[in-house]
């Protein structure tokens, strides 16, 4: 199994470890596996254009994502409570 296949195989078991490996390994198939259906995501070119057109909004979205990730419990057992609080 190659490096990229190992990252893809790790996604369901340990998303955090897979993301760390993605940074080290990269690979188009890994990015596709992380993104899921292409319909849910825009391509990088379109996303860059969007950020250029509205940099403040892009920065706010990034800061919100970082804040949410920082507040999420490390222990997955706490995720359901966290998700209920975030989504309600």
Explain what you see.
The protein has 2 domains: 1-41, no CATH class; 42-88, no CATH class. The chain has 6 helices and no strands. It has helices at 3-10, 15-25, 28-35, 44-53, 55-71, 79-87. Helix 1 packs parallel to helix 3 (28-35) and helix 4 crosses helix 5 (55-71). The model has no long low-confidence stretch (mean pLDDT 76).
- List segments where confidence is low: pLDDT < 50 over at least 5 consecutive residues: none
Q: What does the main sheet amount to? A: none
How many domains?
2
Total count of strands: 0
Shape: flat
Percent strand equals under 5%
What distance lies between the first and last C-alpha atoms, to the nearest angstrom? 42 Å
Number of helices: 6
Roughly what percent helix?
over 70%
Query: Could you say which structural class the secondary elements and strand pairing correspond to?
Result: mainly alpha
How confident overall, as mean pLDDT? 76
Rg over CA atoms: 15 Å
Question: Secondary-structure element order, as H and E?
Answer: HHHHHH
């Amino acid at each position: 199994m190659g490096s990229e296949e190992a990252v893809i195989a790790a996604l369901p078991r340990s998303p955090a470890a897979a993301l760390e490996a993605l940074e080290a390994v990269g690979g188009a198939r890994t990015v596709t596996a992380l993104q899921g259906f292409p319909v849910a995501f825009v391509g990088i070119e379109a996303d860059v254009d969007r950020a250029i057109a509205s940099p403040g909004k892009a920065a706010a979205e990034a800061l919100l994502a970082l804040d949410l990730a920082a507040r999420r419990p490390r222990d997955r057992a706490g995720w359901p409570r966290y998700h209920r609080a975030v989504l309600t």
